[in-house]
Structures are given as structure tokens and as C-alpha cells.
UniProtKB/TrEMBL annotation:
PANTHER family xrefs: CAVEOLIN (PTHR10844)
Compositionally biased tracts (Acidic residues): 8-20
GO-annotated molecular function: molecular adaptor activity
Family (UniProt): Belongs to the caveolin family.
Annotated source species: Coregonus suidteri
Protein's name in the database: Caveolin
Location of the region described as Disordered in the Swiss-Prot/TrEMBL record: 1-20
One GO BP: regulation of cytosolic calcium ion concentration
Highest rank taxon of the organism: Eukaryota
Keyword hit for Transmembrane helix: yes
Pfam (any one): Caveolin
Transmembrane segments: 110-132, 162-180
Membrane association type: Peripheral membrane protein
Amino acid sequence: MMRKTDPIETEIDLGDSDDEDLDADLYKDCEEPQLLWKAELGDRMDEEEAVSPLVDVSDTKPLLNERDPRGVNDCLKVSFEDVIAEPVSVRSGDRVWIWSNALFEVTRVWLYRIVTVLLAVPVSIITGLIFAILSFQHIWFFSPCVRYILIITYWLQSLWSIVLDIGVLPFLTSAARCYVGIRLRLTQE
């Protein structure tokens, strides 16, 4: 039994040790990982630490790094050599080739950035409006109209199914059985 005069040993983990086994022992009994808050000052804070651990970083990071994850615009992955290619028989000077390559890349990148700054927001607004209108028409007009037509023409679908089952299916089945025994053998003479 402990007396009140005995010192109590308390161990505080400041997280500055490199011992991985200690961290594994701390969390081996936990069912869910615990959220750890990091407090850093000023410039020492990198982007992932600045975001609250309650925010799922995976939702925002792919938007910045991978902007075409489905490869919609693979045809636009063009380099200078894909556009301008000199055969061995006809060549310009090496410096002309290098400067042409550099100017092509700089012009392509900066003009794209300038046009994007000027037109990206208006074009995205217009595209959003168009897709919103198309979605509205599809949800509130086309789908109900198609459903209405299917309900009204159910008798026609049934009649067509009967015609196919009685008239066309036996004919095609007989033709298939007639031709199933035919075998072609191609030989080269």
C-alpha cells in the first residue's frame, strides 16, 4: 500500500522519441485511431499539418495534384517533339532547335494561363448553367415523359412481344437448326 509521502512516478510522452515500439504499445488496445493535434509555429507548419485532422485531406488534395484523373484530355498531352519533328535528312541548327523548343513550351504554358485567367470563370459558369438545365430537363421532363409513354404503350409492348414469340422466333429457330450442321473448311491450294 502506498503512503502519501511516497512519490508517484508519472511518465509523460512528448512524442519526441524515435522508438516505434512505444507508439505501437500505446495504440495496440485502441479500436479506432485517435486524432492527434500538432501545434507548430509559423513557417514550420506544412500544408497537411495546418489542416485540422477532422478534415479529410484526401478530398482536397487530388483536386490540386491530379486534375484529370479519368484521362478525359489525354489527347492534349503534347510536347514539342509531338508537333514539330525534324527528320535526319533535314535539320536546323542545334541552337535554333533548342530556342524553338523553349519558346514553344513557354508560349503554350503562359498563353494557356492568361486565357484561363480571363475565361475560366465565365466558361465554368456557362458550363454549370448548361449542365444544370440539362439535368433539370432530364429529371423533370424527359424521364417522366418516357415513363408516361411506357405506361401508355404497355399494351403495344405486349402485342409486339407476342408477335415476336409466335411469328419470328420459330422461324429463326428453324433456320438456325437447318444451318447448324453446315461446316466450312477452308484450304489453301
